[in-house]
Amino acid sequence: MNSQKVGILGGGQLGRMMVEAASRLNLEVVILDSPLDAPAKQIESTQEHIAGAFNDETKIRELAGKVDVLTVEIEHVNAGVLSSLEKNGHVVHPSAFTVLTIQDKFVQKNHLVAHGVPVADYMETPDRASVEAAGQKFGYPFMLKSKTMAYDGKGNYVVKSEQDIQPAMEALSKTPLYAEKWAPFTKELAVMVVRRANGEIRSYPVVETIHKNSICHLVIAPAQVDGAVLRRAQAVAENAIKSFPGAGVFGVEMFVLEDESILLNEIAPRPHNSGHYTIEACETSQYENHLRAILDMPLGSTAMKVPASIMVNILGESESMEECYRPCQEALAVDGATIHLYGKKACRAGRKMGHITVVGESMMQTQQRLAPILKAIEPNVERPLTLRPLVGMIMGSDSDLPVMKVGAQILKQFGIPFELSIVSAHRTPLRMVEYAKSAAQRGLMAIIAGAGGAAHLPGMVAAMTPLPVIGVPVKGSSLDGVDSLHSIVQMPRGIPVATVAINNSTNAALLAIRILGASIPGILKQMEDYMEKMEGEVMTKVGKLDNVGWENY
Amino acid sequence: MNSQKVGILGGGQLGRMMVEAASRLNLEVVILDSPLDAPAKQIESTQEHIAGAFNDETKIRELAGKVDVLTVEIEHVNAGVLSSLEKNGHVVHPSAFTVLTIQDKFVQKNHLVAHGVPVADYMETPDRASVEAAGQKFGYPFMLKSKTMAYDGKGNYVVKSEQDIQPAMEALSKTPLYAEKWAPFTKELAVMVVRRANGEIRSYPVVETIHKNSICHLVIAPAQVDGAVLRRAQAVAENAIKSFPGAGVFGVEMFVLEDESILLNEIAPRPHNSGHYTIEACETSQYENHLRAILDMPLGSTAMKVPASIMVNILGESESMEECYRPCQEALAVDGATIHLYGKKACRAGRKMGHITVVGESMMQTQQRLAPILKAIEPNVERPLTLRPLVGMIMGSDSDLPVMKVGAQILKQFGIPFELSIVSAHRTPLRMVEYAKSAAQRGLMAIIAGAGGAAHLPGMVAAMTPLPVIGVPVKGSSLDGVDSLHSIVQMPRGIPVATVAINNSTNAALLAIRILGASIPGILKQMEDYMEKMEGEVMTKVGKLDNVGWENY
């Protein structure tokens, strides 16, 4: 497919998953890492790999002599050597400049600010006095951070008060430091962005990351946040990556603040833990796209091919391999779960030993599937996930609530995530336009609109969204609801409204559920069960009528 | 995860994909095959593999000495040795009996018939006279087949007349023969069935296979045939596999005849070409489930995780590797396409060099995605695929056709596969029950029902399917259609009908498309485009009215 040989600095799990992708494309890959049985080397027997550190100049030059393109699976490499190799005509992706800029988080921040990327306030803190000044400038708590060699929360210290300054500086004494204003985030998001050697950029869906002890714990794809926030996060990530020369895949971690604005936290110039899910859940994995990008081959689609996915990391609990296999044993019995173990021979607390990706037909189902695996990892922790609504229920006025409430109960009973609000065609026409126009991008799959009298809401919303809109004619004080019914149902050719019976929000909810069920087998099954239960209830009455007789019924 | 070491007889592409699955589970695998760089050995560097033939007794015994469980990636192994090893307490999956029975296709047929599995008539043909007798018994054409060493059409001969007998017997002179009655099939189906060491059985979805020169060319998953046929095929396959002792995954190939009955064609006791698609399209791949099965671990879900998938084999065209890479280069630019190359160093005509699996949000999209890849393989061949309908359109009487036709045109214009038929609630009540009850299993996602007057059809169908049902009130000769409208819309709580305007089958079709679009982004996009076009048309009229003035309009 491509005759250029790839050399990877680092042979851990990220290198391993790159090799997996390379094998499928018949690409040749040589690994530089110390262990002879490094995870990546275990699944590549056609090449003579190099045993040595990925910051050892001689070894890096030896690797460069064997391959056509150099890349990294970790940013803490000897970037100076990469830079010198680049000057001598070697191809290095991402570029040595990019690795150099990113591996020093303070330099990274300066670079991002210079390119207009929003980040939390920060300042250099070469000495105790400047750390104190940071406390005064940013207030407490603030973050004291190592400029270099920081990963998985190592090199970060939350300074809660002036008393913390001394211990913080001692804990981080090995590297130069800088201070960062505390970002009061409501969620953490991440995006994998891939940049081809020719400059083309594609980004994967925005995911939500949940950390445990500062190490990535869960990755929820797609992130269950409003579509507008997702688009903003994607733009921030893409703009940031556009500012770095060279090709490859980049992990961009971000904060969402209370006001839904985005701050970029940090960037990894390589495949990233928050993109593991792409192997099972996307049309092309981050690993394959990294290879395509650095070899200047066409990029693969970054779209999700399944509706939902959650990844959970398998960390060592102790030195016992058995303990870390426990959640994996659990996962064997979970539909949609794929286990990735990295072939590491020694287990220790906090070491990344593998990960499990669970996919499902909906986020509801994926979350349920994940539950027994999570329970094996952290038996006493609840991690409730707020799901993005799939059904939007709106009504022209709060006077319609008594009617609409009955349908809302049905949605709740079926466990369908939904939202319920007032949107009036006549009193809040602009709100209605905004609601209808954004509904599909926000992740809704159907809209239920209740209205009485002139009852314009369902039809007007249907005119501004491609989603199915269900209309509930609400009975007013005159005309028995026939006015609402005719107004809702008699739409002109081109714009349909799915009209249900007068005041029958139950049927509107059931119709929305049937619409979801058309593509989500679990929900179709729920509907079948519901219909069977209804039949059962009538049959019970049949029995009762038979038993007690019609006169005593 | 499991400390038992697995030994595989054969290190080709099937072994390679087994190894890929094994690595992810930290399972140890040793390969027996002649080339030192056999495809499976290329991606496994932690073990000392064995160089030797998979029918070499000494080598098989050497392998057995190194591992806990023996398995095969090809059935043409020395099954006698496997049998002797089994007697000495070695674990062999599938069992030596199963391999022995299946590797002789005549013995396989006898076994299947003895277990009540439907197969085409066949007879043993030890000599010329018996081949002639077969011609008389079965008529021409019939199949003359090698009992052993047959694969990819090799060992089969279509005997079209008595004159063909001599050349057929010469062509197949190396092995004993049997004759088989010609099965006038309309489609070929296949199912992967996995059987765990403890006897548990799960089967993958039924796929359609399309052969070219007797070699598997395309695998369409799920098969685009009626749900009732799929269930029948799955039952035949599962019953067949239940009759074989031992564990593992089995490929079952079947014929569908004109009358929709199923004949089993043949079985492979191992992962199979028709199951490659499971890697990208199912929750657990056939390779991983093969390993789980033989190690007596819980089986993984066999369900599809994407709506549709088509696999195409990459065969060598000549000795040129470039030529076989051509469709792969094409695939790099195709969303949803995953390329699998097997690392084979030498290319030759007809050799399986790799495969490409395309997945998509719908079979329509998947087929469109596949087109440029297929064109690179066979530029002058059209392979039209009949798609399973997604929308069912029914009406109480052919007198409703003029009204319903308009909606049908819309579905056609959007490229939605649909069916249109007459189902009368009052004149064909049992047909209506059958239609409604089977709709979801047949693959429909929405039903449009048109009816006039009493107009019971939409509501009655809705009462017997969990799918969304759209009702079109057809205007009769009296009451202006209000009778139909009220009859359709005023459904009792529990059973919704999505009612559209009187006679407005356009809106019914558009609503069905919106329902599909709720889960299929490509269709949602089509709906957005349609709405934009409508807006454009009105804007053109606005312009015209402005230009020519209202008096001259």
Automatic annotation (TrEMBL), chains A, B:
Residues 109-295 form the ATP-grasp domain. Its EC number is 4.1.1.21. Keywords: ATP-binding, Decarboxylase, Lyase, Nucleotide-binding, Purine biosynthesis. The keyword Nucleotide-binding applies. It catalyses: 5-amino-1-(5-phospho-D-ribosyl)imidazole-4-carboxylate + H(+) = 5-amino-1-(5-phospho-beta-D-ribosyl)imidazole + CO2. Pfam families: AIRC, ATP-grasp, PurK_C, RS_preATP-grasp-like. GO terms for biological process: 'de novo' IMP biosynthetic process; purine nucleobase metabolic process. InterPro entries: Ade2_fungi/plant, ATP-grasp, ATP-grasp_carboxylate-amine, ATP_grasp_subdomain_1, PreATP-grasp_dom_sf, PurE_ClassI, PurE_dom, PurK. The keyword Lyase applies. Pathway: Purine metabolism; IMP biosynthesis via de novo pathway; 5-amino-1-(5-phospho-D-ribosyl)imidazole-4-carboxylate from 5-amino-1-(5-phospho-D-ribosyl)imidazole (carboxylase route): step 1/1. GO terms for molecular function: ATP binding; metal ion binding; phosphoribosylaminoimidazole carboxylase activity. In the C-terminal section; belongs to the AIR carboxylase family. Class I subfamily. This is Phosphoribosylaminoimidazole carboxylase. It comes from Absidia repens.
